[in-house]
Amino acid sequence: xxxxxxxxxxxxxxxxxxxxxxxxxxxxxxxxxxxxxxxxxxxxxxxxxxxxxxxxxxxxxxxxxxxxxxxxxxxxxxxxxxxxxxxxxxxxxxxxxxxxxxxxxxxxxxxxxxxxxxxxxxxxxxxxxxxxxxxxxxxxxxxxxxxxxxxxxxxxxxxxxxxxxxxxxxxxxxxxxxxxxxxxxxxxxxxxxxxxxxxxxxxxxxxxxxxxxxxxxxxxxxxxxxxxxxxxxxxxxxxxxxxxxxxxxxxxxxxxxxxxxxxxxxxxxxxxxxxxxxxxxxxxxxxxxxxxxxxxxxxxxxxxxxxxxxxxxxxxxxxxxxxxxxxxxxxxxxxxxxxxxxxxxxxxxxxx
Length: 352
Hints:
The chain is an alpha/beta fold. It has a domain at 151-346: Vaccinia Virus protein VP39 (Rossmann fold), CATH 3.40.50. Helix content is 44%, strand content 14%. It has 14 helices and eight strands. The chain has helices spanning 3-35, 44-51, 55-73, 78-84, 86-91, 109-112, 129-137, 151-161, 181-186, 199-211, 248-261, 279-291, 297-301, 305-311, and strands spanning 99-100, 168-172, 191-196, 217-221, 234-240, 262-273, 315-321, 340-346. The chain has an eight-stranded mixed β-sheet, with helices on both faces. Strand 5, helix 11 (248-261) and strand 6 form a beta-alpha-beta unit. The radius of gyration is 21 Å and the shape is globular.
């Protein structure tokens, strides 16, 4: 396919997704509130009993599912487009000496069992998967556009304001490096390690970092729940949109590993989807998880993560609703959005 047709098709899908976000979702929420009895339902199942069979909800759900499918696998989808350009894309990677690939790393069963995001083959099984994932990420949150500071930079700014400047940073589940870049640029004197299960994503992240002459960043293919770092290797550990992609046992192991890797007095900050204030929000979010092949969103949202972290001995634990754009977390915000949340905690300092 030619570039013009691909761009036009992807722009159309993004426009349809924006319509779904800004028109259909508010109408669905209004319809639910008009149908809602008093007192309001307190479970997602009760919400489904009210609106799950309506034409509007079925249209809302169908459109969400199939726009994502068209985005990745349609005639002008991300995967067919990048597959046709495979050789040129791989040749464009350039210097990837900062990437440490582990060809013997076994992919966990949960990671292999589903095409996350409806990404064909997942984000790990094809050499061009990093390119596909990077292009797809540009239209994940259509309302942001270019009018607001990037949500990753906003997250980094929060971390910078919440404690001392770090010297050794670990970014767990770094993907192709979009979440990592603000950290190694903001904390330019720190040593930054970024790890991910996906070799293609790690390779792309390393290539992009090398192209921008950043030498304080190292990308490594590694499982975040079982790293090879020593105890207390980092004073800051972060992740972005990693936790909801893990089954509950792996979530527990990941936080154990993060706690082990923190220096006494170190801190962790994880940006993910968690804060769901009412049954309607949970119903919408849990439906999203099914329609976009994100099977662990629901069990993750049900975990009392503050209690879990406190039981692990961490202190100053906070679960903080996060604004990906100015005003997006207000109670009267009318449009669909992810339930962005920061999970923050610190490791107690060693007592004298």
